Amino acid sequence: MATNRKTVVIGAGVGGAAAAALLAKEGYQVTVLESHPFSGGRCASMVKDGFKYDFGVHMFSRGERGPHGRVNRRLAGNLAWVTRDPACRVMGRVEFDFRLDIRPLLRQFGVARKLGVRTKNYIGAFRLMRSLLSGRGVEANDAVSLQDYVSRFTDDDMVHLFMNCLSQLYFALSYRQASAGEFVWCFSHMFNDASFGYPAGGSGRIPGSFLQAFEKLGGSVRFGEATTRICIGNGKVMGVETASGHHDADVVISSAGIVRTLDLVGRQHFPNEYVTRAERLGYSNAYVTLKYALDRRVIPYAVVFHMPSLPPDRVFDYVEERRPPDDPYIFMPVPSNLDASLAPEGRQLVVAGTAAPAGATPELCDAILDRVHAKVCELFPDLKRSIVWQLRSTRLDATELTNHAAGEAIGMGQTPGQVGRLRPELATPVSGLWLVGADAGSRGIGTEMASGSALNLADRLMGVSGPAPVK
Ligand SMILES: Cc1cc2nc3c(=O)[nH]c(=O)nc-3n(C[C@H](O)[C@H](O)[C@H](O)COP(=O)(O)OP(=O)(O)OC[C@H]3O[C@@H](n4cnc5c(N)ncnc54)[C@H](O)[C@@H]3O)c2cc1C
Q1: pLDDT tens digits for 163-214?
Q2: Which of 20, 54, 229, 467 could disulfide-link to 9, CB 3.0 to 4.6 Å?
Q3: How far is the CA of 321 from the centre of ligand 1 (A)?
Q4: Among protein residues, the one whose CA lies closest to atom 41 of ligand 1
Q5: Domain 6-43+62-81+201-281+412-461: what homologous superfamily?
């Protein structure tokens, strides 16, 4: 495809920012239109009283070795990473440090022992680990649930509990809902890369650094400018409309999500089957989060992973039953332990989150967060008296950010029937209109799926042939 084409990218989240910069590098004339006055979408960072906190509860499974690193290298950008070993403190029913690299067999033995796997189940647990690390059988297991996949190897309670919590961490879905093929893909890449990490300067540096490279290449970003319509003529994209008028474009790339993109174009421009399928796709759960600004360093770990004391397959029943959890699973990065510049000297920034039902009411979000707060205070009793301020983000904030009613954390659910070959394609039936971001054309975890999607899109537009080379 010829370059120097006039291109509009809708959205300056990770997917839009990466796509815009990669295409600008190839000579496309790209303008990014972002409805908010800031970049990053769900991966934005904000500042309050000298604390720089993330909108989400973000960690990055593959750090610089994953798609964010690949985008950065292609752009010769300045995104820098922090990794810690141990990567994480597991707490709750059992308590131990989780090492960054679990490929050595002795480490796997250590994890099994500390997790409390019953001795008679060791062989099954090792076979499961070997199978996950091998990365084999991804497509063969795309249509299998992760719960069924794990059950092929073992019925050990602690293995099931760990896998269920990891599934909620990766996909914002329980292991009953998640695709095993997608999980195998993500697990094998995460643990073979062994570079779980966090960007220096906060999560917002990922889209921020992509946009910096983009602007250096001559691209322009227009903040506070929502696309209100994607214009079509003779079955081809002609441009977009915003409150400031019409923007001509030969190529429009939307990171607004497939259904919102249909709204912007008008369903009459698409085949019925495409519209019906798009409207039937399901989303991940939402997440609710607490941000704590503390007047001292209370938590010594980089990340805390709290596993509830509940039967393994019941841990996330509360999401389906739309009630608060009895004992919440909590993912809790401590960003200022990863990069001290994210909090004023001697202070600490802590972020804690858990899953909530898509579309949860404000009352339910608050009730879930009350349980999270109580558990965090139980785990770290000094935290309560060290709070300078705390903020809550709920499903409603995600809805406001994305304009998606579900307020889903990740995007399109990574469930059987919605992953791999069945994930929405980057190309749409309308010539010149493409999708990008966590909802389309890639595999991976959250933001990494969004960057992976942008890499695949750039390769597609530049004529690198073959099926989407998600790596
Ligand atoms: C609480 C929480 C925790 C998470 N934890 C992790 C994690 O640990 N690791 C991880 O990798 N991922 C995590 N994620 C998921 C990750 O943040 C998302 O999957 C990813 O950021 C999605 O990126 P995107 O570019 O596809 O979409 P978005 O981030 O939604 O970006 C889309 C952008 O498009 C803009 N836009 C939409 N419509 C229009 C329009 N009409 N006109 C102009 N602009 C428009 C939006 O304002 C937005 O900026 C988490 C998310 C949340 C909410």
Answers
A1: 999 999 999 999 999 999 999 999 999 999 999 999 999 999 999 999 999 9
A2: 20
A3: 26
A4: 227
A5: FAD/NAD(P)-binding domain (3.50.50.60)
